[in-house]
Amino acid sequence: MEPLYSTRPGEEEGVPGRSPAMQALQALLRRVAQSDRPVLIFGPTGAGKEVIAQQLHRLSAPGKPFIDLNCGAIPEQLLESELFGHARGAFTGAVGERMGHLQMAGAGTLFLDEIGELPLALQPKLLRVLETGQYRPLGSSESRHFRGRVVAATHRDLKRLVAEERFREDLYYRLSVFELELPGLNERREDIPDLIEHFCRQQRRPLHFDAAALELLCQRDWPGNVRELRNSIDRIGTLAPSPLVDRETLEQLLAPPSPASALAVELAEALLGLEGPDKLAAVETLLIEHALNRCNGNKSAAAQLLGVNRKVIERRVRLRQDLRLTVERYLAEGRKLIDGADFRGALGPLQKGLEVAERVYEGKDLWRLQFELHRLLGVSFRSIEGWLSITSLASYRDAQALAARQGQAQEMASVSFGLWTTLLMGLELAEARATAQQMLQQAQVAGGEALRIEAHLAMANTLFWLGDFEESLACLARGRLLEDDQACWPSNQGLDLVGLARTFEGLAAFELGLFSQARQALARLQSRAEQAVDNPFNRAVALQGAAWLAAVLGERDALGHLARELELLSARHEFSFYRGVGMILRGYHQGISGEHEAGEQAIAEGYQQHVLRNGGLLFHGFQAWKRGEVLLLGGRAEACLELVDVALDLAQDHQERAYLCELMLLRGRALLALGDDREAEATLRVALSTALTLGVVPARLHAAVELARLLERSERGTQVQSILVRALRGLDPQLDYPPASTVRSWLARLSS
């Protein structure tokens, strides 16, 4: 867009205006320029808010970038990428890294126009930038710093949006450290002559107004503010027959003023704010509905009120009914395809359903159909494009916004599961836990078995990755998710929630030393995979859980079979993420079976090309643990150590403790292989202490055995017994796990 106030070379840059309001604004602007804190600019449309932002930038950060972003002009699903940038492979079509506006602004100014249009889902992320100066591009694990200044502008009443819960209160106060209010042109009429002179100088040929014409321009209402005045001068400059314009010529060139022009502009702006892409159809529907309400449903009277034939009303009402039936048909078709795991096929009918729904303005309960269409699109895009799919997230947020506007707690809660998965898989564990807690509260308020199950599963899953295995298992029990499969388990998330519950029951039980329970979970998952032959996606979920458990339990034969089946099934049905998990587990099986190089390559390729590219950053610790073991078995201790150190840094940065002890133990083993006994001992002691703190039994026993061997080899056998006793303290004397029997035998030998 052309700048509202442009200048010629050598002309002073600024906003023309001698009015007290503009003089006060300019004085405040100069003081605010001395700070680098955020600024919020208020003012009506066309008043020149961007010009004020540019002037502030020139005063405070001359020579540095000025980057502008209109929050209302970019689709929501693209806005996050525009603002934060994205890494290669962050989503389908992201073939390279893209620099976001935050990075482009650098130490300069980022101007966010129409900040009131910023989607609610993006507001916490902008708040984090303002609070910490840090952000993370989509699909990237690397945090970046923003050292510039944020200037925001809006013509909307943000305080009212805050009261309506459409704008975050904390973000409002972060943005409004300094507030600059730009008055409309009708509030500073004394500036009109200066503005006219300014715009006349910008014309390609000389342009002047005589006294009468100038008086007419100054008396005229300008509901479009400075932008309307500038456009009028540009039009006159082109069409005027001579450089000097008199009143008679001006009246011919200007549109005749209307006493209701301001009201007409206000009404038109309100109508343009109606939902849906077809504003004309929305206005027509709105008028017909209002006329029918005024006439108590009498179509003849409503037609007379509108000045049309009764058949026009009947035709419009019948069309809306037909359109609604079409929307319902598309929704049913899409849901059926999702139930059969044909997520790509479901996109067509779901998107067509939304297109038709947009032609029905505010139909009774139509929002529920639109809600479900958006939600199922979120499920489909997540399954096709990966856990961090921008289009999936946008669809979930569209559904959430619909439910929020209707005040429907149950629908809002059902969308929270999809948003939670995105946070979890992106290793945003603190936010994932907060979202899971909110889901539990929503389930308690809204009721319903489906919400209860989803909320408890989300919390148990999150707690597992945070390393709280005991509470994770307890949460599954509180939600009655350890009982026999319930008929009421929901299937509307596009995921086999039963399979997920069994997976994390087994994984948590393993870490707590409840090996029998972990093996039972493995058996139930194998059985579930055999039963899910009609739904390949549910079968993939069950196979993933079973192969994962087989890997940690050391069930080598089962692991090889399950991993291969998972990989082949997922490749056949284009489940890229699960194909990657299958490759990781198949590679681990190859590695422990002697094929070290091929196994390590399979793990690396599965994680990088399939899991990570589909948003599975959450799996970094597990794959590093298993890949590191294979590297160590292949005699590549140095590569193992390098891999584990990176994984430990990432785990600690994100508070991810699910495999923290295993990674520490592996680091100690790599150091032993490299001959660094001193550092290895320190690492193994930390691994043992951490395992005791987190209640992790397998790593605790393995660390004790490795540490005892090291101490005995270095002729410090007197310390061995205390280490072994410490490792067994509080455990079942009959614990069925190989290192436990090793420790017991060792203690018996020392005692004798």
Give an account of the 3D structure.
- The chain is mainly α.
- It contains 35 helices and 9 strands.
- Among the domains are: 20-182, P-loop containing nucleotide triphosphate hydrolases (Rossmann fold); 189-261, Helicase, Ruva Protein, domain 3 (Orthogonal Bundle); 274-382, no CATH class; 684-752.
- The strands form 3 sheets. A 5-stranded parallel β-sheet has the order 2-3-6-1-7.
- 45% of the residues are buried.
- Residues 6-13 have low confidence and may be disordered.
What's the quaternary structure here?
single chain
Distance between the termini: 88 Å
Which superfamily, in CATH terms, is the homologous superfamily of the domain at 20-182? P-loop containing nucleotide triphosphate hydrolases
Number of strands: 9
Helix content: 55-70%
Order of strands, main sheet, comes to 2-3-6-1-7
Outline the low-pLDDT stretches.
6-13
Structural class: mainly alpha
Task: Describe the main β-sheet briefly.
Answer: 5 strands, parallel
What are its keywords?
single chain; 752 residues; mainly alpha; Rossmann fold; Helicase, Ruva Protein, domain 3; five-stranded parallel sheet
Please provide a brief summary of the model:
The chain is built from 35 helices and 9 strands. The strands form 3 sheets. A 5-stranded parallel beta sheet has the order 2-3-6-1-7.
